[in-house]
Amino acid sequence: MRRLLRWGMPLMSLTALACGAEPLPMLEPAARSFSFAVLGDLHFSRPAFEREQTLRAIAASLKTVQPPLALVCHTGDLVSGEDANHRQWDAAGMAEEVAGALACVTNAFEVPFFMAVGNHDRHGGGTAYAQTVLPLFARHLAVPVTRPYFAFCYGNACFVFLDYMEYKATAWRWTRATR
Fold first, then answer.
1. 80 vs 45, 50, 62, 90, 123, CA distance in Å?
2. Could you tell me the CA-to-CA distances from 113 to 62, 157, 159, 160, 170 in Å, in that order?
3. For residue 86, is pLDDT > 60?
4. Which residues pair with 60 in a beta bridge?
5. 18 in a structural domain
6. pTM
7. In 22-171, where do the E strands start and end?
8. How far apart (Å, rounded) are the C-alpha atoms in residues 169 and 142?
9. Domain presence at residue 92
10. Contact partners, residue 134, CB within 8 Å, separation at least 6
């Protein structure tokens, strides 16, 4: 029987579990041992991404993890989505902030990166997440990723990312349909 690992978060859930009957995108078909990192609430903010040095230190400390790090999962709020005066960025500001933060993370870890959308990631109308983050996931998985909730398999584990804003509606129906 496969192990069940579950993390409960107040605003979102990230779950790794045995894959169900419906085929999901396969990031890595081999059932070899692997490690993955879970990060959350990095809150990168422009113009200077102060979190970059901390992120690089975390990435460096994980380079020697055995079995090797295969992917990084983020539980949401990759960016702060607001300026120093706590005013939310507009769509263009969010696009710049999300793209910069995503570049920092992917450059630091050099493994596939996946994240759940957090409330701060939605600032500026939420378009930056859809236009910048989802295409990255699609490239990693080689399938279209068009929703802020998705799942994929890695070896004998299945990673499910849910959108906390849609957990009672569309995402909930999707989750029930993919069992």
1. 5, 12, 25, 13, 9
2. 14, 16, 12, 13, 24
3. yes
4. none
5. no
6. 0.77
7. 26-28, 35-39, 69-74, 113-115, 150-154, 157-161
8. 27
9. yes
10. 145, 146, 147, 148
Between 58 and 12, name the one with better pLDDT: 58
Could you give phi then psi for residue 19, rounded to 5 degrees? -65, 145
Per-residue confidence band for 6, with pLDDT thresholds at 50, 70 and 90: very low
Q: What is the pLDDT of residue 64?
A: 92
Domain of 121, in residue numbers: 5-13+24-177
Residue 41's CATH number: 3.60.21
The single residue listed with the structure tokens 């120093």 is 84
What's the whole-number average pLDDT of the chain? Answer: 77
Q: Averaged over 21-40, what is the pLDDT?
A: 78
The torsion of the CA quartet 105, 151, 163, 13, rounded to 10 degrees, works out to -80
Q: Is the dihedral of CA 162, 58, 112, 19 positive or negative?
A: negative
How many domains does the structure of the chain reveal?
Answer: 1
Helix (H) or strand (E) holding 24: none
The reported pLDDT for the residue numbered 15 is 36
How far is residue 65 from each of residues 5, 62, 92, measured CA to CA in Å? Answer: 19, 5, 38
Per-residue pLDDT reduced to its tens digit, 119-165 = 888 877 778 888 888 898 888 888 888 888 888 889 888 898 888 77
pLDDT above 70 (res 21): no
